């Protein structure tokens, strides 16, 4: 058979078509994945470099691993660790709740809440967290007393600022208010990722805006909210180390208090580093589990095609024996 250049391929029918199909199936059955020498070399090089680095760190006497093991579970370090975890939990809860309110206000059609929310986010994202913590800790310099009362009228109650603003309250206020600004933008992005038709459907069923957010919009937005929220939680764990500048006894402050007495700076810093790595590793596992939970619906939609499991685009799936479909 002569093939003319540029002509359409001839259609093969009959036994010849069966032979062509059989040849293709035979080729696919005996196909092998090509050997990727470059990838293997990169893996080998990576393992060699990682092993060499681990060997150098393990054998370097200046790390004083015996001292690290001695202080890793010391009482003062564990107390500082509990303060770090407590600050992280409380600040994330307050920041997330306040961030949700700010995000809803940011999406409001009313100009006043939208403007106030925007100003809040602009201020707290535009100033360093360390400066905010120091500002809260020294609030009594600006306001010696804090009072509640009628604007331009009588005071109902009054307190000394130093009695209210302790290192703990300053740390919680600084971390929570700063986190709320970032969580507001994360939640707003998640809400915007939900199709507008979901809001319209909820309104058609007579749902209020708040009920539609709770029952329909927020559960769907969680797929977009969870990953960056996990990153913020990990960042919060590390950001709590900043409270050491206001004499808050967190993990880093506890390590600093020890090496200021013993002058074993590197081993105590390694103790703090190892605890931070352990906590963030556990949080990464939890984040992955939550992401898989909220991605169930999306996976089912992708894996199901016409009511049957789909193996790929255009693939035909045979029903199992005895299936009535």
Characterize the structure shown.
- By secondary structure, this protein is mainly alpha-helical.
- It has a single domain (62-147, 157-304), classed as MetI-like (MetI-like fold, Orthogonal Bundle).
- 70% of the residues lie in helices and 5% in strands.
- The protein contains 14 helices and four strands.
- It has helices at residues 15-29, 37-59, 65-72, 75-106, 111-126, 129-137, 139-142, 161-164, 167-192, 196-204, 209-239, 251-262, 265-294, 296-303, and strands spanning 145-149, 155-160, 304-305, 308-309.
- Helix 3 crosses helix 13 and helix 12 packs antiparallel against helix 13.
Just name the CATH architecture: Orthogonal Bundle
The CATH superfamily is: MetI-like
Order of helices and strands: HHHHHHHEEHHHHHHHEE
Mean pLDDT value: 81
> Kindly, what is the distance between the CA atoms of the first and last residues, rounded to a whole number of angstroms?
45 Å
CATH class, named Mainly Alpha
Can you tell me the residue ranges where pLDDT is under 50 for at least 5 consecutive residues?
305-325
User: What can be said about the biggest beta sheet?
Assistant: 2 strands, antiparallel
The chain-level structural class is: mainly alpha
CATH third-level topology: MetI-like fold
* C-alpha-based Rg, rounded: 30 Å
Helical element count? 14
Q: In percent terms, what proportion of residues is strand?
A: under 5%
Number of domains: 1
The spatial strand order of the largest sheet comes to 1-2
Helicity range? 55-70%
Shape: flat
Q: Using DSSP, what is the number of strands?
A: 4
Protein name: Polar amino acid transport system permease protein
Membrane topology: Multi-pass membrane protein
Region (Disordered): 304-325
Family: Belongs to the binding-protein-dependent transport system permease family. HisMQ subfamily.
């Amino acid at each position: 058979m002569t093939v003319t250049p540029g002509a359409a391929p001839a259609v093969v029918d009959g036994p010849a078509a069966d032979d062509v199909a059989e040849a293709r199936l035979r080729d696919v059955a005996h196909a092998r994945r090509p050997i990727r020498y470059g990838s293997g070399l990169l893996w080998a090089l990576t393992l060699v470099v990682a092993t060499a680095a681990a060997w150098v760190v393990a054998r370097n006497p200046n790390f004083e691993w015996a001292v690290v093991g001695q202080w890793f579970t010391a009482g003062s370090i564990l107390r500082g660790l509990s303060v770090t975890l407590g600050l992280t939990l409380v600040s994330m809860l307050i920041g997330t709740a306040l961030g949700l309110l700010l995000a809803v206000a940011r999406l409001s059609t009313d100009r006043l809440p939208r403007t106030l929310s925007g100003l809040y986010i602009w201020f707290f994202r535009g100033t360093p967290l360390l400066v905010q913590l120091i500002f809260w800790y020294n609030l009594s310099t600006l306001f010696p007393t804090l009072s509640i009362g009628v604007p331009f009228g009588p005071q109902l109650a009054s307190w000394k600022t130093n009695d209210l603003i302790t290192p703990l309250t300053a740390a919680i206020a600084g971390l929570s208010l700063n986190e709320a600004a970032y969580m507001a933008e994360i939640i707003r992005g998640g809400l915007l990722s939900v199709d507008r038709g979901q809001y319209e459907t909820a309104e058609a069923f007579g749902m209020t805006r708040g009920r539609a957010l709770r029952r329909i919009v927020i559960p769907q937005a969680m797929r977009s909210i969870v990953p960056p929220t996990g990153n913020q939680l990990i960042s919060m764990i590390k950001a709590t180390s900043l409270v050491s500048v206001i004499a808050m006894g967190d993990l880093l402050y506890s390590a600093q208090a020890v090496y200021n007495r013993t002058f074993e700076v590197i081993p105590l810093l390694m103790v703090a580093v190892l605890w931070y790595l352990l906590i963030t590793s556990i949080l990464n596992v939890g984040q992955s589990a939550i992401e898989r939970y909220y991605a169930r619906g999306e996976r089912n939609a992708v894996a199901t095609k016409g009511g049957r499991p789909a193996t790929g685009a255009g693939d035909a799936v045979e029903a199992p024996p005895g299936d009535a479909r």
